[in-house]
Amino acid sequence: MIDQPTVSEARGLVEAAGLRFEPGYDDLVGLYEDGHLVGCGARAGYVLKMIALAPAVQGTGALGEVVTQLLLGGLSAGQESLFLFTRPQNAPAFQSLNFRLLASHGPAALLEFGPGLEAYLAAQAPLITPGRNGAVVLNGNPFTLGHLHLIETAAPQVDRLYVFVVREDLSVFPFAARLAMARQATAHLPNVTVLDTSRYAVSAGTFPAYFLKRLDEVATAQMQLDLRLFAQHLAPRFHIACRFVGEEPLCPATAAYNRTMREVLAEYGLGWVEVPRITAGGLPISASRVRQALAESAFRTLATLVPSATLDFMQTVDGQALAAYLRTHKERA
């Protein structure tokens, strides 16, 4: 029987399976036999997690019952595709339930249910041009002169430069604003195409630890999956031969991601170029520095840190609302 377990029941089963119980989910479902919890799983947005079975029901149809209930919850919530992290040895069991393996490395595998990746790539097809292309992946929270310097440095080195803007709305500046700023600031570069990453690079599905600025074993495993998904699926489809990154002296998590990127891309014969970070007033330009200046309404300082597209947005009603937010809330990464 499928029912909602108590948190203590679910935590016990999840931890007995050697997994980490993670509070924060939209659905939590349990499978009961004779009044005992023998299977459970959770869904947070489009990510399925904490799927655990008691030894007595492993190899039976219990997994299918739990997963089906989670999928129904996700689909009814409007999620057309759902992600799942699991151990590589468990991937075949989920593949038998119509999940597709996206990437696997070490202790973790990433799978997807639904048309997601192929639908995303098909939608981007009109933007794809042949050649020796490059890529930049950025959050742009907000878009700075540092981001612009990185793109202007990379663009002449490739036939086309794809700038992938992180889609997740887990930053201070919303995705729509970040995408618009990036497009406006790079409009003068004819071989630059700005597009969104959807769920397939630095997302809550591929690399959730990024948004927590966490650096641990889980984050390291997520970095590997995120980068291998890029190398195996996005790079070939967009004819990407090289990925460009900005030097990262400030954020340990991003610096570790860049180091891991260099190693992983080399395995696939892909290039990696680090562009030195530019400074203003003797200090590195960073998005966190921009957010601090915005909170202080220091527009003279902002004019030295951001392009006109970003500065214009900051003076709009929406931009001033974000300034007020930054003044009254502890900043989110």
Descriptive report:
The chain is an alpha/beta fold and 333 residues long. It folds into 2 domains: 2-114, Gcn5-related N-acetyltransferase (GNAT) (Aminopeptidase), CATH 3.40.630.30; 119-328, HUPs (Rossmann fold, 3-Layer(aba) Sandwich). It has 12 helices and 14 strands. The chain has helices at 7-16, 62-76, 91-95, 116-124, 145-154, 175-185, 217-237, 252-267, 287-295, 299-302, 308-314, 317-328, and strands spanning 2-3, 27-33, 36-44, 47-53, 82-86, 99-105, 108-113, 133-138, 161-165, 192-196, 240-246, 271-275, 279-280, 283-284. Strand 2 and strand 3 (36-44) form a beta hairpin. Helix 7 crosses helix 8 and helix 9 (287-295) packs across helix 12 (317-328).
